[in-house]
User: Fold this.
Amino acid sequence: MHPKTGIFHCLQSQQFDRELLDHLCVLADKIRDIARSKKGMEYLMSLLNHKRAMLYFVQPSTRTFLSFYSACQILGIQCAEVRDTRTSSEVKGESEEDTVRTFSSYYDFIIMRHPKANFAQRIAQLLDDSERNVPIINAGSGKDQHPTQALLDIYTLQRSFPYRGSIDGLKIAFVGDLVRGRTCRSLAALLSKFDGVKQYFVAPEECQMGSDILEILDRAGSSYEMVEDFTSVIPEVDAIYMTRLQDEWDKEDGISRPIDISKYSFNPEHLSLLKPDAILMHPLPRRKEIHPDVDRDPRAAYWRQVRNGMWARAALIAAIFGTDRNIDDYYTCNY
Ligand code: NCD
Assistant:
């Protein structure tokens, strides 16, 4: 465990406190500054070149996988991957638990994306009780949590409103499939740690935010409103977080007819309703929730979000292994 930040496993967004979030955002900024020069990049790549990572991604992924892979490369970490259980001993009947224990025997930490909610938590507990405990990073668990996406979303928000000094007091709308969107769930829970934030949940009734997340907000005294009409919310907010329909879960959820979320799309004509300094976010992949013509508007933040993810994840990994202090020292001496 990191002696100062206390971070070892990264399992759910609620585990981040304000101090750690601020620390990781500043660290991510320092890493990206240092990485601009060859000398700086060589320094970063020397920090953790004695560590090896297993990327266990048994659910589809483009961004999160590559973002973690790149974050590891920045810190000099060597990576191995399992992306398909058909190529592992799970086909011989080995349990997922034994598979992950095997990874922990060879690697120094495991980054995992898995279709089951709570899988990362379960594995972390298993390893906590084993002879070789290594950090687990949850890169998306079922419909439940995506803590590192929430981290990069917070980092994106922090960078987008530098003149405000923090995210406190922002109004943020979540739009789309909120009940099954793990990115929205993780970010909504995390935003409850900021003061004066108001969240708008904009979705058809069957896609509205889950009661477990609303309870977290209620307990924190964090303000929110459920809304059906998307257009009315656009001029009110500082950030809009669009999401796609998570219909890969339809079969499991017993949904036989497609849910229509076409009303919950951001089109070029909506740009004139958006505040001049607001931002438009999306965890991606997108379908039709944001028209590609919107991409040219400076308020479209989703491609910046993708790049921010790499730096935020590099910061998280550096903090888990305690090399954040080295980065701080290097930065102080050279910048
Ligand atoms: C999201 C995910 O996998 O939950 N993608 C991502 O990690 N950026 C969102 C999605 O698939 O809709």
User: Anything to note?
Assistant: Strands lie at 52-57, 78-82, 109-114, 136-141, 171-175, 198-202, 223-227, 239-242, 279-281. Residues 63-64, 140, 146, 149, 182-183, 243-244, 283-285 surround N-carbamoyl-L-aspartate (CB under 6 Å). The mean pLDDT is 96.
